[in-house]
Amino acid sequence: MRARKLYTSLALLAALAACGETTGEQALYGAGAGMLGSLLVDGDPLLGAAAGAGGNYLYCQANPGKCG
After folding, report:
1. Rounded-to-integer distance, Cα 11 and Cα 31, Å
2. Which of the listed residues 13, 24, 53, 68 has the most CB atoms within 10 Å of its CB?
3. In sequence order, what DSSP letters do the residues of the chain get, joined into one string?
4. Sign (positive/negative) of CA torsion 14, 15, 16, 19?
5. Per residue in 7-30, pLDDT tens?
6. pLDDT for 46
7. How far apart are CA 2 and CA 23, in angstroms?
8. How many other C-beta atoms are found inside a 10 Å radius of the C-beta of residue 18?
């Protein structure tokens, strides 16, 4: 169980480091980070993926110089 959380944490950090250049990439990377984050805290992975996709897309639209 401890190793699973460690690997999930590392994967989450890698997903957060990737911002994406296109709208699809931004949504995909955000969904991956959201899903991994929700799995880390034993939440709903589908809800986490939806929140992550929307959050990363909106962040990149509001801060275009920091994404891509």
Report:
1. 13
2. 53
3. -HHHHHHHHHHHHHHHH---SSHHHHHHHHHHHHHHHHHHTT--HHHHHHHHHHHHHHHHHH-GGG--
4. positive
5. 766 666 666 656 778 899 989 988
6. 94
7. 35
8. 16
The residue type of 36 is L
> According to the model, what pLDDT value does residue 50 have?
93
Encoded tokens for 57: 């897309």
Joined tokens for residue 67: 């994404």
The amino acid present at 46, given as its one-letter code, is L
Q: How far is CA 28 from CA 1, 6, 12, 21, 48, in A?
A: 27, 22, 13, 11, 12
pLDDT score, position 62: 86
Q: According to the model, what pLDDT value does residue 45 have?
A: 92
The number of residues in the chain equals: 68
Cα gap 58→34, rounded to integer Å: 14
